[in-house]
Amino acid sequence: SGQLHSLPIPTQSWDGIGMDFVGPFPESKGYNYLWVVLCQIMSMVHLILIHTNMTASELSYIYI
Questions:
Q1: How confident is the model at residue 64, as a pLDDT?
Q2: Neighbours of 35 (CB within 10 A)
Q3: From CA 18, how far away is CA 45, in angstroms rounded?
Q4: Per-domain residue ranges of the chain
Q5: Which helix (H) or strand (E) holds 62?
Q6: 14, 43, 44, 54: least buried by Cβ within 10 Å?
Q7: Are 47 and 58 in contact (CB under 8 A)?
Q8: Rg (CA), the chain
Q9: pLDDT digit string (tens) for 24-62?
Q10: What is the enclosing helix (H) or strand (E) of 46?
Q11: Is the dihedral of CA 29, 22, 9, 3 positive or negative?
């Protein structure tokens, strides 16, 4: 086990983010989950429609 260290404090928008997946919801247009991405500085939220069959590669493509 290592030592505890403080996390760096973000200084620019989108330097520090939080994300979560919310759902499942009734399917609509092929989507049934929300991917919530939050900027910790501005508290700006992006809500991204996704479905349960998406791969990590597909999610990374959407994120970038």
A1: 81
A2: 19
A3: 9
A4: 17-63
A5: helix 56-63
A6: 43
A7: no
A8: 15
A9: 999 999 999 999 999 989 999 999 999 998 999 998 998
A10: strand 45-50
A11: negative
Residue 62 in tokens: 């959407």
- Closest listed residue to residue 19, CA positions, set 5, 3, 33, 39: 39
- Please say whether the beta carbons of 10 and 32 come within 8 A: no
**pLDDT at position 48:** 95
d(CA 58, CA 35): 13
Q: Mapping DSSP to helix (H, G, I), strand (E, B) and coil, where does residue 26 land?
A: coil
Sequence-distant (6+) residues with CB within 8 A of 11 are 41
CA distances from 27 to 8, 11, 20, 45, 51 (A): 39, 38, 19, 22, 9
